[in-house]
Amino acid sequence: MGIVEREREAPRPGPGDIVVRVRAASLNKRDLFILRGTYPLRTREGIVPLSDGAGEVVAVGDRVTRFRVGDRVAGSYFARWRSGPLSLDLFDQLGCTLDGMLAERVVLDEQWAVRVPDHLTWEEAATLPCAAVTAWNSVAGSQPVLAGQTVLTLGTGGVSLFALQLAKAQGARVIVTTSSAAKVERLKALGADAVVNYAEEPEWSRRVREATGGVGADRVVETMGPDTIEQSMRSAAFQAQVVLLISRGQEKPDLHISADAYRVTMATIRRVFVGSRDDFEAMNRAVAVSRLRPVIDCTYPFARAREALDRFARGTSFGKVVITFS
Amino acid sequence: MGIVEREREAPRPGPGDIVVRVRAASLNKRDLFILRGTYPLRTREGIVPLSDGAGEVVAVGDRVTRFRVGDRVAGSYFARWRSGPLSLDLFDQLGCTLDGMLAERVVLDEQWAVRVPDHLTWEEAATLPCAAVTAWNSVAGSQPVLAGQTVLTLGTGGVSLFALQLAKAQGARVIVTTSSAAKVERLKALGADAVVNYAEEPEWSRRVREATGGVGADRVVETMGPDTIEQSMRSAAFQAQVVLLISRGQEKPDLHISADAYRVTMATIRRVFVGSRDDFEAMNRAVAVSRLRPVIDCTYPFARAREALDRFARGTSFGKVVITFS
Amino acid sequence: MGIVEREREAPRPGPGDIVVRVRAASLNKRDLFILRGTYPLRTREGIVPLSDGAGEVVAVGDRVTRFRVGDRVAGSYFARWRSGPLSLDLFDQLGCTLDGMLAERVVLDEQWAVRVPDHLTWEEAATLPCAAVTAWNSVAGSQPVLAGQTVLTLGTGGVSLFALQLAKAQGARVIVTTSSAAKVERLKALGADAVVNYAEEPEWSRRVREATGGVGADRVVETMGPDTIEQSMRSAAFQAQVVLLISRGQEKPDLHISADAYRVTMATIRRVFVGSRDDFEAMNRAVAVSRLRPVIDCTYPFARAREALDRFARGTSFGKVVITFS
Amino acid sequence: MGIVEREREAPRPGPGDIVVRVRAASLNKRDLFILRGTYPLRTREGIVPLSDGAGEVVAVGDRVTRFRVGDRVAGSYFARWRSGPLSLDLFDQLGCTLDGMLAERVVLDEQWAVRVPDHLTWEEAATLPCAAVTAWNSVAGSQPVLAGQTVLTLGTGGVSLFALQLAKAQGARVIVTTSSAAKVERLKALGADAVVNYAEEPEWSRRVREATGGVGADRVVETMGPDTIEQSMRSAAFQAQVVLLISRGQEKPDLHISADAYRVTMATIRRVFVGSRDDFEAMNRAVAVSRLRPVIDCTYPFARAREALDRFARGTSFGKVVITFS
Question: Which residues of chain C lie closer than 8 angstroms to B276, CB-CB?
């Protein structure tokens, strides 16, 4: 696993392209899996890594209509997925089968990019494409969480914290699990209405049910998968929705759910895989109106990108790990 | 038009009934129409008026399971409409074909009542059943407004102010129209992101479009009807939704929409008629989590109920007109 | 396990009740579990068994408005569930916590009953409440199957055959699995577009994918559960929906799904538990317009009800097992 | 108004393009409006006319993956609208702002084309892109019509007949209006369950209500607009959906709806503008599975295209007017 530094010629935009001077990029688990060669989807050799980055438009092709020089943009994870449901012919991903964002300058088809909210720093804007859109789709896609409903999120990874913040922006009540007493206050500062310490109570679904008057959560954003699905299902309200997000590189990824877990709550299990460009833009409106600020665990300059990867790989981050370009 | 004061015997609950000591009641336009005899739906003679009221459970029948003595409750507008879509056999309304809430003690089938949020005063709780549930259904029913979307509300009547507050609770941006410069600050204090003075600009949809970067509103809560539908349609975003709420007693109620108005935005027109008990309970969760406080224009003791009606009939209220029982 | 024959007095309707002279009743797995005492939900001792039955209204209470003497009706499985989503306070079931249909005369609250389609015999009408409504909810509830989509059903049990027939009524293409070459022609006569023999190919999802040009089924009506969920998931189209219906009395009911099964198709798993009275009535309209005829495996007179139970318990029926009253 | 015949050089495909040898094309009202210069949307001068046509792929660019030489295809009306909701940046239309199908050979971006069902003739396939997709979106989009529901269609134009056929393919009951007794049998042969003669009864909504036991239609496909909206609204079931499709070139296009019409049924008015490529492909699956055959009023060779236009402009067609290329 590793990143190879390369010089490329200054990119020139085709007629429908934009050139983006990248200011910051951020890491997601799938980037680790791609770098390690354990990502189960097709990848392309020698690709510029990372789906997530944000920067400034510095040149536009002749036929570009969506952007002007100076616009602040990010690329959309599934570059060709504009709207509607995901389909298999739309699977091209930045930093996987298409060049990604870990470069000083990148060329993007203008259809692959979105404007980022004005109030965000470059570092913050760089965290949105994968984790925040995934979280948005989990709480606002399909059947949107309504104000007053209860959302359960697991831990302090990127998707979970965005799900917490976006659910709060929608007026939901949010319960978060953590194993660290030290993180409780930080989670509450982000809006968590209740925090459940799963280290203290392996059957932590009991705590979730207690915290909901026995009813359970209306939406569970299940970011862990096989290890936690049993308790997640038991935490759900009757016929609620568990959004199952599993990083496609886990070691023991089979799902096992006990009869008690799926019988009692009869929850729907919905799968989400990031989101479309329309989802990204809808989320940006929510981020802008709610003045949401993404949570950044730490920031490294590009020269120390490997340290960023190491830090992220330890899996103990509270929020996103960001790499900046000067 | 008028209210006749009557003595009734102390009510005794049937096995599935609760007795509620009403503490406060509130007025809606349909109450005026019913009292005037201009309400176009079937009404029953000599009915206890008003759909909206809140009070304390003081007795319960043998088989009651939903409530205990001491619970704080309100009746549900369409008493028999529990969930799902409205249908014609569910049209019984409190204060219309069923005895309503303008009485010191009322008997309700326990299925007709809901708990009200703890943080509300009696006066505030009494404003919810008709106006707030209508507003909730308008912004959270069918396709819920998403955080970051723009909602347009008209004026300062009960439904409009609840729509403003509930849309804010969902994370929306809200634009409100008014003809009164004096009301602008109060609307902003309630969360309005922009206020459009329609007295200054008869073509006020232009202001709405300006305030949305030319895009228009994603949801219009059209509480006026025939007089404003043309501008409401022109205020909508492309293929957005205009919720049309028309008080069934208006004088010139035909709808006229110009080709330009419906062509350009291609908006859907959806009709809403209050909501089910499930809607009411879902809204109460939103009210509780967001700590929403209903806006009360003024409060009169029961002895001065006619003044309350007069005040409300003038149509210049900012929020709800409430009648209290000592 | 067993049925105890008892004499009861001629039932008299309360003001909102109807008296039904039952002409036929039908069996479902949950009836076996209830009779055996292995049903995991609360049951009531000494209950009249069976949720499913149809008959003629022979008397009505004073306040009955939905029915007249002579109407042909069936009871609704969850008697109190009128519309909208199921909730825990609506769990009363005929033949479980409420008296069911295995009696010559039953009294039903008029709200618990629905008219049955005119073209059906009593035997056919008696098969609808549990299996047909479950199948309807599986293919027409939530996101309805569209004409032209592909539905997969498993085997020849009651729910599966109704799902086949109702999916055909909606214009879908239907693939059915069976282990019996002898059943292939009967399935095709019912409209099956393709039949997959799972005895010949344990990895039968491959046959389903072949039969769909590699795409998979848009809806899987998973009536078996733990034993087949792996192949069902592998049979689904990308982001399709697997409706998981598990009889709550199975011996090894835990769910195990391999990573390959849930990763590749990213299917949603939705749970269905029969349906509401509104669902039943909507289905009846579909049954009437499509002239659907329920598939009856065999019919026994009431005097031979135990034989009917034995036959049904063997699990080899092709369609429903019916008990008739003369 | 008129069509100018021109010679063009044999087209050569770009890397992502296909060359289609057009075999047949069909007419829609919008084509008349464009040719007459009364279409209110932006058009481009000198465009090849007609959105609707079908033909054979005779050459493909280097990077084409969706098609091979020999494939039978049609272009998608809104060429760039792939999926999800329509938006204003996707408004390019074949035969309006992009070259259309009235040519012996056309070049299409492969993303703009769809395969047509195998069982259709070229003439039949040529009728699908505008009218059939509009009809599909009207009955299967948003809330799909369920089997057993009642659909009302107006007259014998292209969209109406497709709506009739597609609604039947979904298992609906269909009521059709006509002013011509002579057409009744043809409509019944296409599946119409009831035909209402509006010439005999100006208040024809009464006949629709009679034909539905007083309930009204669950979906109205309102293809006429201002002239019929009043009766259409009165024909709708309570809280049903009226899909309003108005050709954007009508002379008196303002909408007027009486209070009685919108109050009693409280119907939603939904606007539809053809559909996306995904809609087109979903419809093609329905057409294929149901073996639907489009209704062709008459066919003219290209040399007599003006006669075809004249015939179509008279507005008395029963189905589509087609132009063929030898």
Answer: 84
Q: What is the DSSP string of D208-263?
A: HHHTTTTS-EEEEEE-S-TTTHHHHHHHEEEEEEEEE---TT-SS--EEE-HHHHH
Task: Give CA separation, C306 vs C6, C23, C324, D36, in Å.
Answer: 15, 17, 13, 77
For strands D296-301 and D320-324, give the pairing.
parallel
Subunits next to D (3 or more Cβ pairs <8 Å) are A, B, C
Report the DSSP beta bridge partners of residue C73. Answer: C55, C115
Per-10-residue mean pLDDT, chain B, length 326: 69 94 96 89 92 98 98 98 97 96 97 98 98 98 96 96 98 97 96 96 97 98 92 97 81 87 93 97 98 98 96 93 95
Task: Please answer yes or no on whether D255 and B254 come within 8 Å at the CB atom.
Answer: no
In whole angstroms, give the CA distance from residue A295 to residue A124. Answer: 8
User: C255 to chain A nearest CA, in Å?
Assistant: 5
CB-based contact, A41 to chain C, within 8 Å: no
Question: Three-state SS for B76?
Answer: coil
**Does the beta carbon of A56 lie under 8 angstroms from any beta carbon of chain D?**
no
pLDDT-derived band of residue D326, with 50, 70 and 90 as boundaries?
confident
Verify whether the Cβ–Cβ distance D170 to C146 is below 8 Å. Answer: yes
A22 bridge partner residues:
A55
A84 touches chain D (CB under 8 A): yes
DSSP designation for A222: E
C257 in contact with A at a CB cutoff of 8 Å?
A: yes
Handedness of CA B102, B105, B106, B108 (dihedral sign): positive
* Alpha-carbon gap, residue D173 to D216, rounded angstroms: 12
Instruction: Mark yes or no for CB contact D278/A84 under 8 Å.
Output: yes
pLDDT digits over D208-237, tens only? 999 999 999 999 999 988 889 999 999 999
- What is the Cα–Cα distance from C232 to C238, expressed in whole angstroms? 13
Q: Identify whether the C-beta of residue A289 lies closer than 8 Å to the C-beta of residue B147.
A: yes
Tell me how far apart the alpha carbons of residues D10 and A38 are, in angstroms, rounded to a whole number.
49
List the end-to-end C-alpha distance of chain A, in Å, as a whole number. 25
Q: Do D286 and C148 touch (CB under 8 A)?
A: yes
Residue A188 is classified by DSSP as H
Selection from B35, B12, B4 nearest residue B106 by Cα:
B12
DSSP D150: E
Contact C149, C175 (CB under 8 A): no
| Nearest-angstrom CA–CA distance, D51 and D95 | 5
- Could you give the C-alpha distances from A24 to A69, A126, C200, in angstroms and in order? 18, 6, 56
β-strands C113-115, B236-244: how paired? unpaired
Q: Tokens standing for A322? A: 């960001």
Q: Please check the confidence at residue A132 and state whether its pLDDT lies above 70.
A: yes
* Rounded-to-integer distance, Cα D269 and Cα D315, Å: 25
Interface of D with C in 111-130 (CB under 8 A): none
Q: Are A171 and B290 in contact (CB under 8 A)?
A: yes
Q: Using the structure block, give the residue that is written with the tokens 């069909």.
A: D26
C-alpha distance from D83 to closest chain A C-alpha (Å): 5
pTM of the model: 0.97
